[in-house]
Predict the structure.
Amino acid sequence: MPGILNHFLKNEDGAVTVDWVVLTAAIIGLGLAVIATVSNGALNHASGLGANLDARSVETY
């Protein structure tokens, strides 16, 4: 039994998987932070653009 436990503790096969999971979580977290930071300004610009387009008229020939 101690041999199996010792082998399990020295086995590093899952370490790469853990690294990828942490890296993926960090990328997702940074993406959400960027979206939260940029979304308010993007919505303000979009509403200003919409108001500008609503104020214009389309001429028909």
